[in-house]
Sequence to fold (368 residues):
Amino acid sequence: MRQSRNHGRAIGTGLAATALCVVGMAGTTAGAQELNVFNWSDYIAEDTIERFEEETGISVNYDVYDSNSVVEARLMAGAAGYDIVVPTAVPYFQRQVDAGIYQELDRDLIPNLDNLDASLMDRVDTQDYGVIYMWGTNGIGYNREAVLERMQDAPLTSLDLIFDPEVVANFADCGVSMLDDAAEIIPMMLNYLGHDPYGEDLDALQQAEDRLMELREHVRYFHSSQYINDLANGEICLAIGWSGDVFQARDRAAEAEQDFTIGYTIPEEGTVLWFDMMGIPADAPNPEAAHEFINFILQPEIIADITNYVVYANAVPASRDLMDPEISSDPSVFPPQEVQDRLFSAQSVDPSYERARTRTWTRVRTGQ
Ligand code: SPD
Fold:
């Protein structure tokens, strides 16, 4: 389904990526300039695309997904028809670059590259091919009232909340969810159990699987976008999710005047810090417009609006003063150094280990 205008913020829109991520190649009208953007769901301000279209006269076909695997499968199959895609830097964007499916950015067409924070860009190895769109952390979203009602001394700052079977059992009735992705959950579990999250140790992987198997009876579902509305509606009370998505759930709950509040924890045990990259596929139908789009997004005012709306951190320092101060000063959105010190960046792993990790995840999700 194409998502052209309405980026579905309101509660009750039924925004769920399984419904949204059916994507077809955008059609082209002879003579008209078109740009085909494939981005994560809930990841752009309401009027960003409209403003780009008004400013440039380029018409945008905007499609969404909620999983890196979906983008990767489409791109690797070739001729996907996209001009802009936004995969996570490591391992996805990196290995897609290695596979030769992106074009090198023409820096002359993107003068606003100068607006990027060089120290953040230095943290990705693929800066000739892409720029950081947003970055964030994996953490825990929780319904404060529902959780504390069931466990007065709930460990709100710790992964014990979900990864300790005795603790999470308290919340099974109010609903627990996890991202549906081996590369998101298993490294968090390995780190929690005291292992190197990317150490490729099969015994450690088995321990992670055993623990996840113990937990799964308390997990209502594995899904990577449904939890936003479900947290906001009170359908679930705990979710392992992405930072900005949980903040969006918090804001939707407040807008709906719910009688509960949603909190977000960057777990004290440490968690994944990630970067999502805007890149231009090698076979993009309209690479010039794609460069124009990246340049447009990198304007401080435009990217500040996006951060205000999706509550993810961006990599344009000059946008900080243009943001809602509650967001720009929120340490859960822009973690200070002492918090960053306990975060770990996603790392690539050997394909054979990755296959083992994926098989583990399939067993966890299916219970077999
Ligand atoms: N709704 C937008 C979600 C963006 C998530 N980015 C993926 C991070 C992968 N570690």
User: Anything to note?
Assistant: Residues 40-43, 88, 184, 242, 245, 274, 276 surround spermidine (CB under 6 Å).
